[in-house]
Specification:
The structure is a homodimer. In chain A, 45% of the residues lie in helices and 10% in strands. Chain A is an alpha/beta fold. In chain A, helix 9 links the parallel strand 4 and strand 5.
Chain lengths: 231, 231
Amino acid sequence: MKALIFDTFGTVVDWRTSLIEDCTRFGNQRGLHVDWVGLVDDWRAEYKPSMDRVRSGKELWRTLDQLHRASLEQLLASRNIRGLTIEDLNYLVTGWHRLRPWPDAVPGLNRLRSKFIVGPLSNGNVALLVNLAKFAGLPWDVVFGTDLWQHYKPDSETYLGACRLLGLDPPEVMMVAAHNYDLHAASQLGLRTAFIPRPAEYGPNQKKDLKPEGSWDIVATDIVDLARQLA
Amino acid sequence: MKALIFDTFGTVVDWRTSLIEDCTRFGNQRGLHVDWVGLVDDWRAEYKPSMDRVRSGKELWRTLDQLHRASLEQLLASRNIRGLTIEDLNYLVTGWHRLRPWPDAVPGLNRLRSKFIVGPLSNGNVALLVNLAKFAGLPWDVVFGTDLWQHYKPDSETYLGACRLLGLDPPEVMMVAAHNYDLHAASQLGLRTAFIPRPAEYGPNQKKDLKPEGSWDIVATDIVDLARQLA
């Protein structure tokens, strides 16, 4: 094993709490009365359907920043939230560039980095992931975003594309994720797999991905535990 | 200005001295009597012609690792150096992954990184550049190798491809290089430019790139000086 590639939203960073705080602060400054918790959850609920429209060929390639922007515009319109400027929209959309890492992420990645190549393999685009890494202090060796291949996970082009760019065979690369679907796709292609449950990712009522649903190579409580198991 | 992208061989790392030492050590261990200085210089002399055959369409895309391997095999054969194993060849070719940074490179990059996105835009492939960064301790935020676009510099796809992946317009990105041809191509496309002369890159008899040959935005004595000028 030479490299670990990480799902990022949910696995490395706590997108939900970060976005709710970011949006709430923005709303308070603007004097807006909006249910930001509900809006953030609805925004994320558009994530998979919006990518699936691209994956199925119903829509041409758009980056995750572009998908986030389109779904937010629709959500604002449907909730009758009016009068936001283009700059406001830009600010809210780049909230996905300002997410806090889970507490174990940076120390865990730093430990892993001394022995392995570490990088994200996220549905985010490269610009989003680079800005996020700067904001959150994520010590990546390399950044894989889906705009490199114009394919979203779980398309095989993403997993195999990362392996090829690293010059490594799939068994030399471990996919790390809090989501079973991601590990399922990676393992089918021969990558190694590590599951890290993040039971609070979707808030207090999370129903899925509480447990491993496959025979993943490693199940770890967090990224520091993963580093310990691979030491 | 948001990001700086760096030519790597010659600008950030001292490929010639590093490779001569690496090859000489290898030769001594094998009891080989080879003029390694001459071989390294001849190897590098194949660099541009080998990329130009790809750029002109005479040859299909091959990564720099693959070009390095092909040109080394030819050089060994033409010098009648026989009996090296495939593992020996792999070792020598990956000498380009084990290059030392110029003394100013790591401290200069660390300073720049606190304010800007920094990454290589090198003719190397991503795997080479990631391995090199691990070996040399180069603190990149993102790694741009030419296999991302299957184009070698100075093709416009490389410079504009890096800007697009960063989500930035060319004037928001500065190309940093010890080679005037590289800055010429970047400036034609609207990127900013910084020249850092490396008069010892090609050894004691270097004739070219001793001085800036264009109106580059910045001329700096080294990467620490560049950071100082941009502070």
